[in-house]
């Protein structure tokens, strides 16, 4: 029979429910496992049914809660490894329960009643836990509550099994959240950097019965990076609106992502519109997409293309109809694009982007081979104090048209000062300058050479926000635009109604608030 402190270490090792982290201290010296970093999707693993629990061996020693905690602390103190800076992998493992047992002869571990296990950012709560140090496994036949603050995960599951040598675990009947995504699944496989959901669902609508969700036979999630779903179906309420063999979504913070659901709206110029984007990977880093846009005043205006995407840039070809914010239409047939994503200049607080395009542009009266490039520099937002933020940017560009053999050169400068009064009130003042000549096409061109824009936003309550904005033409000395916007929170959707007073136009849009 081991001494009490040694027994507690063995229990801590057996209960090292750390998905993706190595054991530390004396526990790590007792049981070691090779570090594994997963770079490929998980295999189609299913959880093993758990039918029986291990009862305490008559020869095992009971350990009371207080002794377990003290022994863990003493062991950590005597271990040289604990003297270095603590990291997630160095974090000690602690387990508390109403009853704790450890068998030296069989390696069985038994914890019952208010079982709580903690290591680093992870916590496991259950009523009954079994494990075996010889098999390097632990299992929970009943309900378990798992939290990982690093993954921002909180899951409720049944039939949990974990092998701390391979660092993979399985769960059944899972419900919970991973970051912003609300998930469920018949079974879930956990790995150091990946979560695999079988026959599961994902949504960001917190309603008891979600307004929308995606279901799929297999969902692979890399929290904070991306999600890939296979044989995915997209639901509005209880109705499937479409399905895709493969669907990919960015999970990076701030990513706009691929909106899988349609937007509906109205504008005085285009009438009622319905827009739907469909996108799917077609090969390694190659993606195909199509935008199915319909306007009652303009008819069916689709566009689509193929793009090759790397972490630093993308290259693609597009074809179809495109509309800018002012309602100017162009048909690209086709256009080749190169986009260099934002890159920082050394250690400076300045980043730059670059894009280039070449293709045939067509409007109602002319056709031209259009060549364009733009280079733009942005300074990090300057926080003048707790309430004022200053944004600065400048850039150059070039446009050449074959129609009249014209070439124009752009120089741009933009600055905006934002002041936040409180959580409800904010206002802004911006100046925008563009040195350019008249271009052949009006599509996506600035309305003014020197523009002063200002406005404010006021949050009336948790569901309603009012915004006012105006644009002043400094060259011609007149008010160019004056917009009034009401934004209403529809729980999982958001609606916005805008009146453009200087143009006497209305605009209304409804889209998902969360996806």
Q: Give the termini distance in whole angstroms.
A: 56 Å
Question: Number of folding domains?
Answer: 2
Radius of gyration from the alpha-carbon trace, in angstroms: 29 Å
Structural class: mainly beta
CATH class of the largest domain: Mainly Beta
Largest sheet: 16 strands, antiparallel, barrel
How is the CATH topology of the largest domain named? Porin
Helical percent range?
under 10%
DSSP summary: helix tally: 3
Q: Please tell me the CATH architecture of the largest domain by its name.
A: Beta Barrel
What is the 3D form?
Answer: elongated
Tally the beta strands.
31
Percent strand equals: over 45%
Task: Spell out the CATH superfamily of the largest domain.
Answer: membrane protein fhac: a member of the omp85/tpsb transporter family
Question: For the residues shown, what is the average pLDDT?
Answer: 81
Strand order of the largest sheet: 14-15-16-18-19-20-21-22-24-25-26-27-28-29-30-31
List low-pLDDT spans: 1-53, 64-90
């Amino acid at each position: 029979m081991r001494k009490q402190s040694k027994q507690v270490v063995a229990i801590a090792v057996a209960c090292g429910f750390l998905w993706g982290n190595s054991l530390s201290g004396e526990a790590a010296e007792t049981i070691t496992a090779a570090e594994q970093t997963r770079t490929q999707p998980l295999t189609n693993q299913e959880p093993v049914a758990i039918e029986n629990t291990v009862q305490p061996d008559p020869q095992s020693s009971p350990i009371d809660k207080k002794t377990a905690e003290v022994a863990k602390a003493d062991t950590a103190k005597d271990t040289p490894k604990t003297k270095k800076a603590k990291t997630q992998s160095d974090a000690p493992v602690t387990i508390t329960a109403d009853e704790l047992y450890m068998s030296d002869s069989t390696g069985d571990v038994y914890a019952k009643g208010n079982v709580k296990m903690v290591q680093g950012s992870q916590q496991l709560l259950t009523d009954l836990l079994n494990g075996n140090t010889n098999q390097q496994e632990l299992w929970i036949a009943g309900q378990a509550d798992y939290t990982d603050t690093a993954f921002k995960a909180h899951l409720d599951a049944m039939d949990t099994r974990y092998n701390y040598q391979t660092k993979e675990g399985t769960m059944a009947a899972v419900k919970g959240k991973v970051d912003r995504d609300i998930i469920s699944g018949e079974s879930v496989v956990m790995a150091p950097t990946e979560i695999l959901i079988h026959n599961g669902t994902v949504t960001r609508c917190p309603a008891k019965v979600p307004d929308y969700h995606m279901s799929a036979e297999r969902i692979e999630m890399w929290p904070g990076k991306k999600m890939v779903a296979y044989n995915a179906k997209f639901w509005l309420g209880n109705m499937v609106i479409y399905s895709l063999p493969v669907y990919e979504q960015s999970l990076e913070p701030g990513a706009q992502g691929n909106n899988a659901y349609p937007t509906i709206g109205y504008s005085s110029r285009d009438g009622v519109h319905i827009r739907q984007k469909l996108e799917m990977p077609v090969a390694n880093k190659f993606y195909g997409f199509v935008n199915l846009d319909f306007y009652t005043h303009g008819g069916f205006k689709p566009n689509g293309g193929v793009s090759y995407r790397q972490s630093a840039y993308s290259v693609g070809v597009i074809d179809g109809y495109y509309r800018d914010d002012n309602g100017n239409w162009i048909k690209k047939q086709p256009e080749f694009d190169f986009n260099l994503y934002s890159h920082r200049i050394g250690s400076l607080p300045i980043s730059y982007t670059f894009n280039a395009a070449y293709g045939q542009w067509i409007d109602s009266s002319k056709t031209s081979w259009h060549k364009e490039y733009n280079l733009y520099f942005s300074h990090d937002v300057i926080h003048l104090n707790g309430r004022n933020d200053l944004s600065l940017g400048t850039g150059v560009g070039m446009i050449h048209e074959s129609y009249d053999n014209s070439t124009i050169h752009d120089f741009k400068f933009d600055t905006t000062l934002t002041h936040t009064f409180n959580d409800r009130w904010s206002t802004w003042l911006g100046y925008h300058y563009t040195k350019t000549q008249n271009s052949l096409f009006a599509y996506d061109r600035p309305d003014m050479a020197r523009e002063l824009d200002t406005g404010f936003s006021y949050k009336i309550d948790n569901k309603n926000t009012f915004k006012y904005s105006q644009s002043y033409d400094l060259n011609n000395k007149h008010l160019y635009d004056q917009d009034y916007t009401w934004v209403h929170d529809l729980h999982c959707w958001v609606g916005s109604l805008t009146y453009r007073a200087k143009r006497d136009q209305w605009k209304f849009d409804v889209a998902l608030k969360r996806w």
